[in-house]
Amino acid sequence: MEIDPWSSAQYEDYARLRDEFGIEEFDPTGLPDPSPIYRRGIVFGQRGFDAIKLAIMQKKPFTILTGLMPSGRMHLGHKMVIDQVRYYQDHGANVVLAVADIESYATRNMPLETAEKLAIEEYLINYIAMGLKEDKCQVYFQSKRSLVKDLAFLLGKKLNWSTIKAIYGFEDSTNMSHILSPLIQAGDILHPQHADMFGPTPLLVPVGVDQDPHMRLCRDIAASHRLMNVTHTKDDRIGVFVKGEDDVEKLLNMAKEALSKTGFLDFELNVGYKALYVPGAAESDMPTIEEVLINLEKEINPLTFFLPSSSYHRFMTGLDGGKMSSSKPNTAIFLTDEPDDARKKVMRAITGGGMTVEEHKANGGKPDQCTIFEMFLYHLSDDDEELVEIQNTCKAGERMCGHCKRECADRLEVFLKDLAEKREDARLRVERYIRYD
Ligand code: TRP
Question: Which residue among 188, 193, 203 has the greatest number of ligand 1 atoms within 8 angstroms of its CB, and so is best to mutate?
Answer without folding.
Answer: 188
